[in-house]
Amino acid sequence: MARVSRQNPEQVHPVDEVLPVGKLTLYGFQHVLAFYAGAVIVPIVLGNALDLSHEELVYLINADLLTCGVASIIQALGVWKIGARLPLVQGVTFTAVSPMIAIGMGAGGGTAGLLVVYGAVITAGIATFLFAPFFSKLVKYFPPVVIGTVLTIIGLTLIPQGLQDAAGGAKLIGHPGYGDLKNLGYALGTLLFILLVVRLGKPYLSSLAVLLGLVVGTAVAWLLGDADFGPVKDADWFGVSTPFHYGMPKFELFPIIAMVVVMLITMVETTGDVYAIGEITRKKVDNATVANALRADGVATVLGGVFNSFPYVAFAENIGLVRMSKIMSRFVVVAAGGFMIVLGLLPKAGSVVAAIPHPVLGGAAIAMFGMVAAVGVQILGKVDLREERNALILAVSLAAALLPNAVAPFFERMPEDVRAVLNSGITLGSLTAVLLNLFFNVFTRRSTMEIDWDEMEDDEPAEAQGPLGAPEPAGAHVPAETFAPQGVRPQPGRYEPQGPHTHTQPGHYAPQAPHTPQGPSGPQGPQGPNWGAPGH
C-alpha cells in the first residue's frame, strides 16, 4: 500500500502524510468511536469485580481515556526513541484483566486492592521500558507462524466480546433482555449498514463506514427509545485525573511477578501488532521500530499506574479499522489521541459517547475484531502450513487460547498466582505459540520462513488505490523501504525481477526472488522474520 501520490513529488509515505484538518478530525473521531468500547470495558470489569462505587468507576474511566490519549500520541508521533511512529492506538490490554482482578481481590478488593494493582503496574511498566531493546533483538524467535498465530488468537478472542455487546452487553447476562431479538437487530443492522457503505459507497465514504454505522445505529436506537442520553446532563463538565488519587501504590512481590509476566505477553502482542500495521501500510518494520513501540508501552504503563489506570498495549481493534478504512496516516491517531484527552477531561462529553447502545457497538466490533484475525490469517498465508510442525504450532495454540472460556473449572482449581497469569486466552495461546516454536524450530535449529515485503506488493492488487480511491499511475507502486529520492521519478511500467542480492535503480519496482531458507550453517543460524530487512 505504499503509494506514490500524484500530488506529492517528494513521495511521502502514506503513514507520514499529514491530512487536511477536516479529514484528520473525521478519521480521528472514527478511531475514538471504534476504540471507546474496548477502552472502557477494562475499568468497568475491574471496577465491578473490586466492588467500587459508581463515582470511583467513573473516575477510572476518565483516567483511562486521558492516559490512552497521551499514550497514543506518544506512540504515533514519537518522542526520542519512544514510539513506533505508526498509526497505532494505545489501549488497556485485555491480557491484564484477569491478573489484575486476582491481585485486587487478593488484597481485599476496593481501593485497597487498586493500590496493590498500581504498584505492580508501575513496576511492570519500568521493566518493559528497560527490556524493550533486548526484546526487540529476540524478534527472530517470533517468525510469521508465531506472529500470525498470536494475531489470529487476539482477533478470535475479541470477537466474543463484540458478540456479547451485540446481545446487549455483559450487564445483561442472566437477564431476560440478554440476546433479545431487538438487540441482535440493532447489531445486525449496524453491521449490514457498514458492509453496504463499503460495497456501494465511494472510497471516501467507505473509509468512514464504521463511524457512519455507529452514528446511524445510535440514531435509530434513539428514535425507537433504546438509547438513553439522560446521564449526560448529570455528568460534570470538567474533571482531571490526579496522580495517586487513591493513595500511594503498594509494591508486593507476587503481584509484581504476575504483572511482569503479563507484560512479557503484551510485548509479543505489540510486536505482532507492529508487524501487522507494517504489513497493512507497507511501512518497513525493523528491530528499532519494535523497540520504540515497546518503550512506548512501558512509558504508557507507568503513566497508567501513576494516573490511576492500567497496562497499555498497541490496540489490535484499531488495526482492523486501518485495514478497513485504508487511512494510514499516523497523524490521524495523533488527532484521535487529542479527542481521547478531551473526553478524559470532560466527563459530560465522554458520557455522550458512552450512550452508544451496546448492540450498536457490537455490530461494528464484529467487523473490526474479525479484521484483526484476518490480518493474522494473511500473515499465516506466508507460512508453509503443509509442514507438520508449523501446522501443529497453529493448531495447539488455537486450542490453548480457547481453553479458559471453554473449561473454566480447570483454572478455578489452580493456585491463585498461577491462575492470575494463565486464565486468559490471549496469554495462554500466545505462550503456547512461542514455546512450541522454540521447541520445533529454534532448539532444533530449523530455519523458519521469512516474509519478503517486496513479494507482498503483488498479493493485493485490488488495494493499489489510495484511501480516497485515486488510482496509481503505472509503475509508481514502490516498496516502502526503497522510495525514490526527491527528483527521481520511476519509469512507467518498469518491472525487473531480481535475485536476492541484486539491486535496482531508485524508483524501479523490482520484486525479489523468493527467499531460500538457510540451514544451521547459514550466516545467521536459525532464521527469524527479519520482516522486510534489506538483502532478503
UniProtKB/TrEMBL annotation:
It is a multi-pass membrane protein. GO terms for cellular component: plasma membrane. Residues 457-536 are annotated as: Disordered. It comes from Streptomyces angustmyceticus. Keywords: Cell membrane, Membrane, Transmembrane, Transmembrane helix, Transport. It comes from the Bacteria. GO terms for molecular function: xanthine transmembrane transporter activity. Residues 527-536 have a biased composition (Low complexity). The keyword Transport applies. Pfam families: Xan_ur_permease. This is Purine permease. Belongs to the nucleobase:cation symporter-2 (NCS2) (TC 2.A.40) family. The chain crosses the membrane at residues 29-50, 57-80, 86-107, 114-135, 141-160, 181-198, 204-224, 253-278, 327-346, 358-380, 392-411, 423-443. PANTHER family: PURINE PERMEASE C1399.01C-RELATED, URIC ACID TRANSPORTER UACT. Its main location: membrane. It is found in: Cell membrane.
